[in-house]
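FW: tagging you since you asked about this chain on Friday. Here's the raw sequence from the shared folder, copied in full. Didn't touch anything.
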Amino acid sequence: MGKSEKLFNVVTCISYVIVVPIIIFLTLAIFFNEKLFLISYLESEHFIDSCVEISEDRIDTANDGKLVLLYGKLATKDILTDPLFKVSVDNSTSLTRIVEMYQWEEIKEKHRKRSGKRDIEYYTYSYHKSWRREPINSDLFHDKKGHENPKKTLHKSISIVADDITIGAHKIPSNMIGNYGPSETVVLDSSTISLPDADATIKGNEIYYKANNKEDYSIKKSDSLSKEKLEYLEKLPKIGDVKIYFVKHPVCDVTLLAKQNGDSFTHYNQGRKSFFDIKYGKVAKKDMFKDITALESFAMWMPRILVFLVMFFLITIIVNKYKYYGNILSVSIPLFIFSASIFFHWIPYKTVFALKSLAVCIISIIMTVVALFLINLSAYKEREKDFYDGHTFSKRNNNFKYEDDR
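HL: got it, structure written out here
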């Protein structure tokens, strides 16, 4: 046995001593985590079953502190008014003033090109104009000249939420509704609007401010342009122009999932779980929990996938010398452990899911048996080859002779 072969055997033994206990530990962790996943699932199912569907017409004090489901139409008597422009709306849960300014925007693009034997990365910068709600700091641009933006907007965007929002006899906390539901642009009435600035004009459903700058860097005027063309160019927005429009959220039908707290509602907290949700229209109780259960499902599968990859890597270290057949074992063994754990825990509760796991478990067993058979067959052929390489065969008396005896 050569030195390299001895070294290989020593490394293999060390890998077995280190890796095998880790794999055993991960196997136990898989079964323990699956039990935790099952407990979390059963808790969610309990919340779904115990959730009480209540009527919007009356308040039942027996449901205080319970997780409830309420369907009805939002209502409010509040008149929402913008304090600056005096735009008012009714039958709406919120009114939002949206302020946008026409600004330069920088687009940074990464490129790669071949130079000799290595790749060189470089960046290009392009600039275009757009309406943006937040001021863009042009001092941070790569090419500042000719792309200057105003430092701030003329006015700020604000949102006003109704204080008194109800569904039938129940009060809905305004901080839990906010800008909820379908939105509509407010139709402006010039006779009731207050324009605090002399340079403000009304264009359709927008309040418009023309910028003070006289040069638009994207338009190069010349004497050759026609009067109509110049008038058209003058109508285009220029850097620093500001437009203001208003959006309301009219009252609408909703389904609410929350904890009843007297005649109002709050978050339902139980252990690590927290329930409060509101959806547009009438939604079935099971569907109200979909987002929560989907998040839990994601939280279940991410650790499974991560541990599967770790086990795949560890088993690959052990069976690496078997090449292709070892790769089959690297997949089939973790697959068997996971599918067996899922089947063992979930068969009483999610039969179809568990039976699918059982099918995967059987497939992984078949894969493992086939891989072991192929590994043994390959090893047998390797030993047979070594045997023939060290011996000669005499056809005359049908026996083997060592090469040294010839």
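FW: Residues 3-50 form the longest helix (48 residues).
HL: agreed, and The chain is about 40% helix and 30% strand.
FW: great, closing this out.
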